[in-house]
Amino acid sequence: MTTTFPQLDHPIVQAPLAGGPSTPELAAAVSAAGGLGFLAAGYKSAEDLAGDITRTRAITSAPVGVNLFALTETRVDDDRLAAYARAIERDARRHHVGLGEPHFDDDAFDAKLDVVCRQRPPIASFTFGCPEPTVVQRLHELDIAVWVTVTEVGEALLATQAGADALVVQGVEAGGHRGGFEDADGRGDVALLPLLRLVARACELPLIASGGIADGSGIAAALAAGARAAQIGTAFMRCPEAATSHAHRDALSAPTPTAITRAFSGRRARGIVNAFMRDHDDQALAAYPHVNQLTAPLRAAARKAGDADAINLWAGQAHTLAQDLPAGELVHRWSAEARAALEQARYALAQPPRPV
To answer: Which of 128, 165, 173, 191 could lock 317 by a disulfide, CB 3.0 to 4.6 Å apart?
Structure first.
């Protein structure tokens, strides 16, 4: 069993970025540069996940992790779901597509877990829930470390009890879906720095900070607050190695505010505010993955047409800091900036106090 935190040249982890931006090329570039890249299993078939792992290993021998969704079925209000489908029908017609068929599925968890167990990446991380202790034990027996995404102290304690080796601590600033165990309004809506301190006080596991970090100074702040590394997502999405759509790339550079919404997927997620979000956020309901399946054909057609007002523009609060640069160059640049920021902080603390 391995519980050792990986030795990284740079304390930078690439967030999995499920649903499009994630590619073997991106994960490999981050790992080859001395950070830790991740492949997203979410929304892919088990066969495609296996292919991504194989492709990544053909590009680099550096370690790359794999992220899985750990979904639990919850009750859905069928009447509200049908009403939401009627509310967005006009958007679908405008893009000449029908709506998808909503239903629950667990994102082929068992099949993807089997792939991970066969391929044996060094780390398997989990989002949306905590794997059962038997799953953790199975992975440990194969020398695969287990990381769990948490958004509050209670989740951190549950993940610790299940045998997790590290915790990805996700602040409310983070782009994309809230990664916590329960999708309740207001649940886990804590900013990253106080959440890091609260979790560090409650748990002794290594912490990976996630949420609103997009440059070296942000990494330095996370390390100073107790994290071993910073997990960065949005700031990698404009890299040439990422498969981010053109409309999404353009939106990241505009100073448009972000908000948390259920409108696209039925689960709370932070994205850049656009017309679809403004029109439908009040009507959206807690129903994941049902709403995600319902809107999938519409979003695919809008993405193909370059319509940024009808796609989910997942982004963190610091999205305008994202740069159109190779991922490896960003890893080295951010690491140097973080070292400089920490050195500056040490120097400032060493100075005699000045009178106020």
So the answer is: 173
Give residue 1's pLDDT band: very low, low, confident or very high (50, 70, 90). Answer: very low
Report, as an integer, the average pLDDT of 80-98: 97
Closest residue by Cα to residue 274 from 102, 91, 95, 98: 91
Amino acid found at 91? D
Buried b or exposed e, range 129-146, using 16+ CB within 10 angstroms: bbbeeebbebbbeeebbb
Banded model confidence at residue 170, pLDDT cuts 50, 70, 90: very high
pLDDT in tens, 12-35: 999 999 999 999 999 999 999 999
Residues near 82 by beta carbon (within 8 Å), at least 6 away in sequence: none
Which domains does the chain possess? 1-71+107-241 (3.20.20.70), 83-105+245-325 (no CATH)
Q: Torsions phi, psi of 38, nearest 5?
A: -130, 140
In the β-sheet with 176-177, what is the strand arrangement from edge to edge? 176-177, 269-272, 258-261
11 touches 229 (CB < 8 A):
yes
